Amino acid sequence: MRTGSVLPHHRTIFRSRRGRAIGAALGAGVIAALTVLPAADASAASAHVQRQNIDMVVAKDGTTKVTERVTYDYASGNAGFTRSFVTRTRYSDTEDRVIKLSDIEVTSDGADVPTRINHEDGTTTVDVDPGKELQGRKKYEMTYTVDGMMVPSTGGVTLSWTPVSGWTVPARKVNINVIGPQQPTHVSCTAGAPGASVPCTLSQAGGEGVAGSKFLQNDLPARGVFDITVGMPQDAVDAEPILEKRHTLVTAFSVTPFTVAALVAVLVLGLIGLWLLWRIRGRDARSVAAGSNTGGRRPFHEEDGTIVFSPPGGLRPGQVGTLVDEQADVVDIVATILDLAVRNYIFIEELGGARPDWRLYKRNEPGDELLPYERAVFDELFEHGDDVLVSDLRSVLASDMPRLRQLMYHDVVTQGWFASRPDQVRSRWLWGGVALAIAGVAITVLLALFTFDALVGLAVVILGIGVAVAAEYMPSRTSRGSEVLGQINGLRQYLQGADPADIPAAEQETLCARLVPYAALFGAEDRWAHALSESEDVGDEGFTWYGGPEGWSREHLDDSVANFLVDVTGAVSTSRPLRGVAG
Predict the structure, then answer these.
(1) How many angstroms separate the CA atoms of 175 and 228, rounded?
(2) Which CATH architecture has domain 51-245?
(3) SS3 helix, strand, coil % of the chain, rounded to 5?
(4) pTM of the predicted structure, to 2 decimals
(5) Which phi and psi angles does 462 have, rounded to 5°?
(6) Distance between CA 87 and CA 55 in Å, rounded?
(7) Share above pLDDT 70 across residues of the chain, in percent, rounded to a whole number
(8) Edge-to-edge strand order for the sheet containing 546-547?
(9) Where are the alpha helices (DSSP H) in 46-94?
């Protein structure tokens, strides 16, 4: 009996212990489950593309119809997704290949899905279900048409495209099927992160008699790309790549029939306009006086039995120089100094020594017979005393050259030879040309930034430069000025062609001396200074207006005058060349 009474007790104890063991095991299992479940839930909560199937059907004309079936797992509170397509890639140094997408439609379970499509910077983006907060798994079907995927290749054509790019979430599995007009010659694919693509999981041609290709990529990372190429026979499709010129500095200045025609048209019209303006504004008025060109008439006449020097219109050398080339030059100032000397206002003494120099002496006070610019030259020379060295003229005259030029320009206007000061006319046209050239640069920059026609803007720049260059020829003489210019041309012909020996010996010293300053304007001073040095009326001691150091004689005058002109010109400033022909 005891034994029997003991057995139930042991059985009870056993059951109790086994229950506690089972309870402990269940508790451990629950704890383990609670530990594992959050990780599984976290994984399930990450948004991703579960599956993407892309079916592409290539037509004979190269147009490709694409159907995508996307299974998208949303994380909690996702607002739709974005599908991205690369639509512009580099093709050559100057051209891009363009992929055109059209007829984009998205449905889910047969119902239209709202989309937002954007084309920008070589990428087309399709926002699917924008603004909606979604969760769980949802299936979509997207259809669209693609043009421009075909590119020429050796012995055939190749479909080259990136059908998958820009997913912001990973894609677990991507399948691509391509059906073409003919059996493919070769296939290949790469996939992975941008710039680090490796061969895709699977690429397979369809086999004998099958015009299809298959591609597979598992576990495509977020932002990953999936590129495919399918080679086809030459006659498989009748399509060329869509190429567009890339906007670069080189292509902005593209040479095309339009840009060349526009460039030529702008230049021709501009040059015609410039020529018309010159005809209206820049050409000299015709002289109203018959025979205004004296054809080498002698610049002196007989008066009361004496031969008197009479330059055309009583012109002074500075006036002649300014009227001839419409410029008040240093050479005009130098000729004026020489003229004041032969007219007994200045005495020129050549100094001895290793380095040539001259001293100018005030000989007579100037009177009313001096023109304003002549008086200004005289006053500047002797502002600080009754003599001045030529070597000091740079500090004496150089700073006052602008004022002296202004006085000479004012004189030719006062005389009625020009309607406006030549320097001011040149300045207006010069700055007008500069402004036009700057406007042309601005137009060129704008065209280069936004078009391929910047070459047209260069025409405006060229015209502006042309106007600035033409400014030199825009001062115009009045009819009176043209008449006097004709007389000056006669004087020039005489100075360059006449024989000084034809001048009567009794008047040779006076007349040759008066002609030397005018001859200096046209580079003919040597022949008249030489004739003066051979004049029988001149003693070895020199002239009333020019003298030399000990040992100097009148035979040296031609060389002395030439050296004097060069040194005075250099002392004042760098001058223009002496004149050879009057316009």
Answers:
(1) 11
(2) Sandwich (2.60)
(3) 45, 30, 30
(4) 0.67
(5) -60, -40
(6) 19
(7) 86
(8) 387-389, 357-362, 346-351, 546-547
(9) none
